[in-house]
Structures are given as structure tokens and as C-alpha cells.
Amino acid sequence: MTAPLEVLPSGDLAGRLLSGRYRLTELIGQGGCASVYAAQDERLDREVAVKVWAEPDEVTAEGRLTARLRHPGVVTVHDAATDGELAFLVMERVHGRSLAEELRDGPLAAERAVRLCGSSPAPWPACTPTTSCTAT
Predict the structure, then answer these.
(1) Which end of the chain, N or C, is more open, meaning fewer C-beta atoms within 10 Å of its C-beta?
(2) In the Cβ-directed half-sphere of 130, how many Cα atoms lie within 13 Å?
């Protein structure tokens, strides 16, 4: 039995094949609830990102929400599944600096923030600076 994700050592899942298809190659991010790996989709021969949780309910909720969003600043979701006790979300792999890396040098200039967000203001059409945002 695999240990809960939060106690797995960094990079512990690298090399693992999930659902007979997604080969995890490198740990690229980790938070309190999930880890994100660079991976290879061996069926379609493409590079992807795989977010892995130890709790299947988390992937279901985030996967459904993210899959409905269409915006240049939101990654495309390709798949959501489980493999044993691990739940995972397969997304497009985006190369570049993280938002945390962008902010290390201080606040973003307005022009840089607009470029990072894409051409539309937000993935939620009803979102304005003075209202709360909800996905449609």
C-alpha cells in the first residue's frame, strides 16, 4: 500500500506508470494537498502534466471545474482518473516560469500582468474588479 501523498518523499512517484498510460518523469511542483509531475502520455506520445492526490474526491471536483473553463490562462484538462489509491488529473504541460517566480522580483507591471492573463480579463465573463467571480 502506498503511503499518503503528504508523507511521500519528493520525487517518489517519478518513473511510475499511471493507468497504463501516463509515465511520471519529474516532480515539478508540490503543495499541501497534491504534487504535480511532468509526464509522458505513452498512448498519444505527448508531454503532459499530472497532478496527483491521495484523495479521489479532490480530483473529481477540481477536474470538473477546470475542464469547463476556457481561457488562455487556464490549462486544458485531458483526463481525470484513479490508479489504486492515487487520484490524478492530466493537463496540458505549460513550460515557463511559475507565478511565484514572476513575483519574486516584486509586483508585476500592469503591462506584464495583462500579457500573463491573455487577451480576455478572466475565465469568468461576469467578473469585474468590483464583483465576485463565478464560473459559468
Answers:
(1) N
(2) 0
Instruction: Supply angle C-alpha 100, 91, 2, rounded to 5.
Output: 90
CATH of the domain at 73: 3.30.200.20
Displacement of CA 86 from its chain's centroid (Å): 15
Domain-located, residue 124:
no
Distance CA 40, CA 24 (A): 7
Q: Is residue 22 part of a domain?
A: yes
Ramachandran angles phi, psi of 44, nearest 5°:
-100, 0
Listed as ranges, residues in the chain with pLDDT below 50 are 1-11, 124-136
Residues of the domain holding 9: 5-92
The answer as to whether 125 is a domain residue is no
pTM above 0.85, yes or no: no
- Biggest CA-to-CA distance, the chain: 49
Length of the chain, please? 136
In a domain, 32, yes or no: yes
pLDDT digits (tens, 9 = 90+) for 37-65: 999 999 999 999 999 987 777 677 888 88
